[in-house]
Amino acid sequence: RKRVVVFISGSGSNMMALAQACQDPDFPAEIACVISDKATAGGLAKAQEFGIPTLVFERKTYADKAEHEASILAALSEIAPDLICLAGYMRLISGDFIAPYEGRIINIHPSLLPLFPGLHTHERAIESGTKITGCTVHFVTEGMDEGPVIGQAAVPVLAGDDANTLAARVLTVEHQLYPLALKLLAEGKVRMEGGKAIRGDDAYDAAQQ
Ligand code: GAR
């Protein structure tokens, strides 16, 4: 089983969806550690209840972004994860941080990228008048929410939606998509090559289910 570190900043519901998938002995990954940049992240207690080790690296306890990232990288090199999943980790990570894990870091974003990258995603989706939104799992590259797409899931935007009702609808499909995407990556059925996500036939079939 591939060893995964999950990065969170908040409630950690996607992290828990991954943790629940990893409980199946046939799932090809397990969570070695959860890392948060916020000591107050609700997901930390949930991970601990699940018996998953946690580490906190508060940005404000470091002089700058480079020191913060260096400290996290040092911890990661001891854990030696195969894969990293960003799950509501609300920080842009640098190219230097990504380099040693290139092709092995994935992120979930609550829109159908390339639409609505960045913050306030649901507000902007509603404002745009689109009738469909969703979520995207993609490889992490240096640009924000720009890496090659592994998979997407769509939900309707309904009349009367506000950012909270839409976020909740999108989250339900995030919790399905993220374990599926992690499974594809852990099984080697998707990989990043030449700036693209390359999927085998098996991977394509699985993503259609
Ligand atoms: C999720 O909707 C995730 O897609 C989003 O934050 C939420 C975290 O919820 N991520 C981003 O906006 C990243 N730009 P969770 O902590 O309950 O998984």
Topology:
Blueprint lengths: L1 E7 L4 H10 L6 E8 L5 H8 L4 E3 L8 H15 L3 E4 L8 H4 L6 E5 L11 H8 L3 E8 L9 E8 L6 H24 L3 E4 L2 E4 L1 H8 L1
Parallel strand pairs: 1-2, 1-4, 2-3, 4-5
Antiparallel strand pairs: 5-6, 6-7, 8-9
Uncertain spans:
none
Bound molecules: glycinamide ribonucleotide
Structure summary, number of beta strands: 9
Identify the strand order in the major beta sheet: 3-2-1-4-5-6-7
**Beta-strand proportion:** 15-25%
Q: SSE string, helix = H, strand = E? A: EHEHEHEHEHEEHEEH
- Assign an overall shape: globular
The first-to-last residue Cα distance is: 23 Å
Query: What is the count of DSSP helices, taking H or I runs of 4+ residues?
Result: 7
Helix content: 25-40%
- Averaging pLDDT over every residue, what do you get? 95
Structural class: alpha/beta
Summarize this entry quickly:
Helices cover 37% and strands 24% of the residues.
Give an overview in words.
It catalyses: N(1)-(5-phospho-beta-D-ribosyl)glycinamide + (6R)-10-formyltetrahydrofolate = N(2)-formyl-N(1)-(5-phospho-beta-D-ribosyl)glycinamide + (6S)-5,6,7,8-tetrahydrofolate + H(+). Pathway: Purine metabolism; IMP biosynthesis via de novo pathway; N(2)-formyl-N(1)-(5-phospho-D-ribosyl)glycinamide from N(1)-(5-phospho-D-ribosyl)glycinamide (10-formyl THF route): step 1/1. Belongs to the GART family. Keywords: Purine biosynthesis, Transferase. Catalyzes the transfer of a formyl group from 10-formyltetrahydrofolate to 5-phospho-ribosyl-glycinamide (GAR), producing 5-phospho-ribosyl-N-formylglycinamide (FGAR) and tetrahydrofolate. With 209 residues, this protein is α/β, with parallel strands linked by helices. Helices cover 37% and strands 24% of the residues. It has 7 helices and 9 strands. The strands form 2 sheets. The protein has a 7-stranded mixed β-sheet, covered by helices on one side. A hairpin with a 2-residue loop joins strand 8 and strand 9. It is globular, with a radius of gyration of 16 Å. It starts with a strand and ends with a helix. The protein binds glycinamide ribonucleotide (GAR). The site of glycinamide ribonucleotide (GAR) has 15 residues, from helix 1, strand 5 and helix 6. Glycinamide ribonucleotide binds next to helix 1, strand 5 and helix 6.
